[in-house]
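User: For my dataset I need records formatted as: sequence, then structure tokens, nothing else. Please produce one.
Assistant:
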Amino acid sequence: MGCVELKGKTILVTGAAGFIGSNLVKRLCDNVEGVTVIGIDNMNEYYDIRLKETRLEEMSTYPSFIFMKGNIADKTTITEIFEEYKPQVVVNLAAQAGVRYSITNPDAYMESNVIGFYNILEACRHSYDDRMTGVEHFIYASSSSVYGSNKKVPYSTDDKVDNPVSLYAATKKSNELLAHAYSKLYNIPSTGLRFFTVYGPAGRPDMAYFGFTNKLREGKAIQIFNYGNCKRDFTYVDDIVAGVVRVMQKAPDKVTGDDGLPLPPYAVYNIGNNNPENLLDFVQILSEELVRAGVLPEDYDFDAHKELVPMQPGDVPVTYADTSGFERDFGFKPSTSLRIGLRKFAEWYKAFYM
């Protein structure tokens, strides 16, 4: 693997006002000497815009951060950013997220996850025009949802992923295919990261732990799918960001094959906790931490507010990452316990909403 020095570089982060994007921007600005981080986000209203605005306010305190409001599906915008700033490392986190929303709003997924992704790839390709050094490493967010209806667990990047059960998953699989083609054709080092259920403070309100919290606070019953027999590889956002920064610094090698043509400098990894948690246990810990933080009263009757229901369309019963490849190549494994992670979320929730 080739070493990519981040010090003094210009890094483009798409989806910069998103949950993972904003945490990555802050980590880079805090820890990388002489870095310039260009962030782009369309600031859409898929969820509470105040969260994105708050994240943006925090990032804007860094002099090394430059924000552009724009849509990656607008090719002109992307071309202009690449021409003006010439990013050497690109992290594409912009995407329309969520499995359930893709059932009712497919257009948003095709625009951002397919056309937008293609625009970023094209800009990376043309960064090499006129013998320029170009993009040294392209990193992008894939998803554990690409494993679809696979029965074998833990999920391995060696598994076939040709059976998506949602449009969202299909768009993420298409990202991996497009990146592979561009890596092969234009020798662009690219690494895809299949994220597994990322959670934490200021996260996405469409995620289960956030929705559960809102409902419990309102005194409503929460629905626990598959009668509580769901398992998820919950991964705390700080662990995800630490992993992404490590990946940014190690690009797949450019190697010429026997035919004289480049072998694609391409890799895909799972990045998850490698420790699936039962959804009932997760909700129990969450409720305890919400009481501890003062979001819920001490005498809250949790059992009276939970309802066990069947699976939903597009969902899978277990997500569980085989992270051995990631640990081997980057020497890193997430370490934040569920209780610590949910405690930080509960404390943030109390401060933000109450």
